[in-house]
Amino acid sequence: MAYCVHCGKEVPEGATYCPACGRPAASGAAAPSGRSTTVWVAIGAACLLVGVAFLGIVAAIVVPNFLDSVQRAKQKRTMASMRELATAIQAYWTDEGEVPPADSVGALAGYLVPTYLGSVPETDGWEHALRYVCWSEDPAVAGCTTYRLVSGGRDGVLEHEDLQSYGEAPFTPTDYDRDVVLADGLFIRYPQSGS
Predict the structure, then answer these.
(1) How far apart are CA 83 and CA 150, in angstroms?
(2) Topology, domain 75-189
(3) Domain ranges (residues) in the chain
(4) What digits encode the pLDDT tens for the residues 31-46?
(5) What is the C-alpha separation between 171 and 187, in angstroms, rounded?
(6) How many whole angstroms separate alpha carbon 158 and alpha carbon 45?
(7) What pTM value is reported for the model?
(8) How far apart are CA 14 and CA 104, in angstroms?
(9) Hey, how many other C-beta atoms are within 10 angstroms of the C-beta on 191?
(10) Which residues pair with 129 in a beta bridge?
(11) Environment class of residue 24 by beta-carbon count within 10 Å: exposed (0-12), middle (13-18) or buried (19+)?
C-alpha cells in the first residue's frame, strides 16, 4: 500500500497522482507519522511549560532576596560611614574639649580634615545627604557638648525635622525607610535583630 508524501492519504496501486491533494504520489512511500509528530510537539510544549514554571519559581525566590541584600548593604554602608565620622568627631572632642561646632556634615570638613579624616562622608548608602547638628546641654557652657548624625534611610525622609528630638528606638533590620541616628558616638536608632 502506498501513501501520499504530501497529505498522508492512501494512494491506489499504480496511481501517479494523489486523489486527495492532486500532487504527484511517490510510489511505495510510507505514511507520514502525523500522530508521532503531534506527540512530540505535545511533549515539547509540556517541557517548555515546566521549564517556564521552574524559572518563575526560581525568580520568585532569588529576586526578592537579591533586592533585600542590596538594601541591607546600603544600610550597613550608611552605618559604617556614620561610625567613621563619629570616631573622628570623638577624637576632635577629646583634643579640643568640644564637639565640632559645624552646622552641617559638609561643614565638618573644616574641623576634621586632614587631622582626623581624609574626607568627610556626606551621603548615606542611598546617596541621601547625612544630617548633623550639635548643641550644648548646659546653657552655661559655650560651644557644643552633644551631637546627632542622622540618615533618613532608603526614602530619605526624616522622621523628625528637629534632630535633637530623636530618642532611642531600635527597629527591624528590613525596615529600610527608618532613620538611622547616632548620638554622641552611639547609635540610638539602628537595625536590631529580633526587634
Answers:
(1) 11
(2) Glycoprotein, Type 4 Pilin (3.30.700)
(3) 1-32, 75-189
(4) 455 566 788 888 999 9
(5) 12
(6) 53
(7) 0.71
(8) 100
(9) 20
(10) 123
(11) middle
One-letter amino acid for residue 103 of the chain: D
pLDDT at 8: 76
What's the chain look like in SS3?
Answer: CEECCCCCCEECCCCCECCCCCCECCCCCCCCCHHHHHHHHHHHHHHHHHHHHHHHHHHHHHHHHHHHHHHHHHHHHHHHHHHHHHHHHHHHHHHHCCECCCCCCHHHHHHHCCCCCCCCCCECCCCCECEEEEECCCCCCCCECEEEEEECCCCCCCCCCCHHHCCCCCECCCCCCCCEEEECCEEEECECCCC
Instruction: Fill in the amino acid letter for 79.
Output: M
150 and 169 in contact (C-beta within 8 Å)?
no
pLDDT average, residue stretch 84-99? 96
Assess contact for 82 and 88: CB atoms under 8 A: no
> Measured between alpha carbons, how far is 12 from 121 in angstroms, rounded to an integer?
90
CA dihedral 41, 45, 50, 53 (to 10 degrees): 170
Distance between CA atoms of residues 1 and 11, nearest Å? 8
User: 146, 158, 154: which is closest to 184 by C-alpha?
Assistant: 146
Cα separation, 164 vs 161, whole angstroms: 9
